[in-house]
Amino acid sequence: MAATLKDIAQATGFSISTISRALSGHPRISEATRTTIQRAAHELGYRPNAHARALRNSRTDTIGVVIPNLSDPYFALIGAAIEKEAEQAGVSTVMTASSENPARLADALETLNRRRVDGIIAVPVAGADHPLTYTAQHCPLILIDREAAGLPSVVSDPSPGMGAALEHLKARGHTSIGYIPGPADSSTGISRLAFMRKAATDFDLHVAKGGSTREAGYSSAMQLFFTDMTALVAGDSMMAAGAMDACYNSGVGIGTDLAFIGFDDLDIFRLQPTPISVVDQDMPALGRVATRQLLKAIDTNSTPEGIRLPTYFYPRLSTASAPKGLAHR
């Protein structure tokens, strides 16, 4: 007879809850405790995959969704698209937020597994590879927006949109650009920065510190104001919003003193007095495709397949003029 969590609890003296968290890689479990529990599980012949399959013998027509922030306009659009696509398929959604915290993501994954959801869509965060990998062994899981742990993901390919944006700036005579990256510990921030470094060979490229908040974007833009850039490109929507704040507060004219390209086609960019050119990754499409891929995997009892979706460049008035830069002011 196969060993159970109760057997491991009796052998180690830990609670079943602690054992479950240790085996799932929860970051709040110490390395010493995790090692003790994993050793006991191995010695007792515990088989987590078989155990999980035994538990999942019926459908609940519910999927779980874990995103970083329910109030962030970017993730709100993705979440709404997931919910709508699932509803059209007759499936309910349970949505929660990780706040970019690996422990909260691990808690959310554990809670969703206990609720016996049929599958999970999650935005990964740094430091949570182990809980994600463990969850994927027990439940169909597909990542969205970012890649992690070699798991299937629905993400955007930055090259089409960002490449078109660079060609647009080059055609207007720009030779020096500033770039504000996304977070340095996310696959999206890393891949977009790597593309910029590779593709912007016709420009003097000034790279500021990356991040994911409006405050960080403000600070990064202020750094770049001391360079000779004539155009600013942001690789993250909230960083772009903060950079716009820095321009307005510093008297830098967007579209006159400085060409400006944001990321993601949000209202905050479209509805400016000088509408902002953007690289867009079609957030609702990410949500729809991730949901379809997950539901297909659930229906066929298979592993979800990852997909890379193209990005697009939408030129507007913020990049319509020839370069002036900040030195003329």
What does this molecule look like?
It is a single chain. The protein is an alpha/beta fold and 329 residues long. It has three domains: 5-48, Orthogonal Bundle (434 Repressor (Amino-terminal Domain)), CATH 1.10.260.40; 62-155 and 283-309, Response regulator (Rossmann fold); 157-281 and 314-319, Response regulator (Rossmann fold, 3-Layer(aba) Sandwich). The chain is built from 13 helices and twelve strands. The chain has a six-stranded parallel beta sheet with strand order 2-1-3-4-5-11, sandwiched between helices. Helix 1 (5-12) crosses helix 3 (31-44), helix 6 (102-114) runs parallel beside helix 7 (129-138) and helix 8 (158-171) runs parallel beside helix 9 (187-199). The longest helix has 18 residues, at 283-300. The chain is elongated. The model has no long low-confidence stretch (mean pLDDT 92).
Please give the structural blueprint.
Layout: H1 5-12, H2 16-23, H3 31-44, H4 48-55, E1 62-67, H5 73-88, E2 92-97, H6 102-114, E3 119-122, H7 129-138, E4 141-144, E5 153-157, H8 158-171, E6 176-180, H9 187-199, E7 204-207, H10 214-224, E8 231-234, H11 237-250, E9 259-263, H12 267-270, E10 277-280, H13 283-300, E11 307-310, E12 312-314
Parallel strand pairs: 1-2, 1-3, 3-4, 4-5, 5-11, 6-7, 6-8, 8-9, 9-10
Antiparallel strand pairs: 10-12
Helix pairs in contact: 1-3, 5-13, 6-7, 8-9, 10-11
